[in-house]
């Protein structure tokens, strides 16, 4: 009985990781690849570790597995946010069919501080500047 | 079906196939952020392999290794993103 539970958990986890790998290979854009990585792979590794916890069925192993799952679940969004912020600053390209880039011109170029939303005039001027620059590059 | 045979002949090949697919993206990746993302996913696949092999070898000690690898993966991603942003700022 417990073997069947372990098989189900490991199969679903491995398929989630396989879907994450296919998504990383096939998605057209850095940002879409990152969303695939954080969600599907975190779920897959959690299910594989739950399978290991069912196999040992011990208090120490189960608490260790819960610690690992908690750690990966907490740190995956943090690392995803940091790397996508760095990718935005090094100007990773959007997909060509993407409709809107809402962050365009919102970051200060030197200090990398997100401009606050209660300064409409300054934000509008930044946005027009960036629009002109992008058109020149194209 | 025996659990060990199932893990050895079905689950581990799925994990290694996904590792191969991620490694293709690691080699192709147009920007350096793609490479950091695929490296992160490779570390996560390694975590899954460690969990499966702890079941196969019946050794609970392998899960300690998994915990350390998870820590190192998070720290490496944070360090990579920090230096990517800092390099762009210096240019």
Largest sheet of chain B: none
Whole-number mean pLDDT of chain B: 90
Total DSSP helices of chain B: 3
- What gyration radius of chain A follows from the Cα positions, in whole Å? 21 Å
Mean pLDDT of chain A: 82
Q: Using only CA atoms, what is the Rg of chain B? A: 16 Å
Overall geometric form of chain A: elongated
Fraction of helical residues of chain B: over 70%
The SS-based structural class of chain B is mainly alpha
Order of helices and strands of chain B: HHH
Structural class of chain A: mainly alpha
Query: Strand tally of chain B, please?
Result: 0
Distance between the termini of chain A: 62 Å
Low-confidence regions of chain B: none
Secondary-structure element string of chain A: HHHH
The total count of strands of chain A amounts to 0
Largest sheet of chain A, in brief, is: none
Regarding quaternary structure, how should these chains be classified? heterodimer
Q: What proportion of the residues of chain A form beta strands (DSSP E)?
A: under 5%
**Treating each run of at least 4 consecutive H or I residues as one helix, how many helices of chain A?**
4
């Amino acid at each position: 009985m417990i073997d069947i539970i372990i098989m189900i958990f490991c199969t679903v986890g491995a398929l989630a990781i396989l879907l994450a790998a296919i998504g990383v290979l096939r998605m057209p854009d850095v940002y879409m690849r990152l969303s695939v990585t954080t969600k599907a792979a975190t779920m897959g590794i959690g299910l594989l570790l739950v399978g290991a916890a069912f196999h040992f069925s011990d208090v120490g192993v189960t608490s260790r597995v819960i610690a690992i799952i908690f750690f990966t679940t907490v740190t995956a969004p943090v690392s995803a946010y940091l790397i996508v912020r760095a990718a935005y600053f090094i100007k990773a390209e959007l997909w060509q069919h993407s409709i809107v880039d809402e962050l365009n011109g919102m970051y200060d170029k030197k200090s990398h501080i997100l401009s606050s939303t209660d300064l409409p005039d300054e934000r509008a001027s930044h946005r027009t500047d960036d629009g002109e620059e992008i058109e020149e590059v194209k | 079906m025996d659990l060990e045979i199932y893990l050895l002949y079905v689950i581990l090949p799925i994990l290694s196939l996904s590792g191969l697919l991620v490694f293709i993206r690691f080699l192709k990746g147009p920007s350096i952020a793609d490479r950091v993302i695929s490296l992160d996913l490779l570390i996560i696949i390694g975590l899954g392999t460690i969990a499966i092999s702890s079941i196969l070898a019946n050794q609970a000690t392998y899960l300690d290794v998994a915990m350390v690898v998870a820590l190192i993966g998070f720290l490496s991603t944070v360090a990579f993103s920090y230096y990517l942003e800092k390099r762009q700022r210096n240019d």
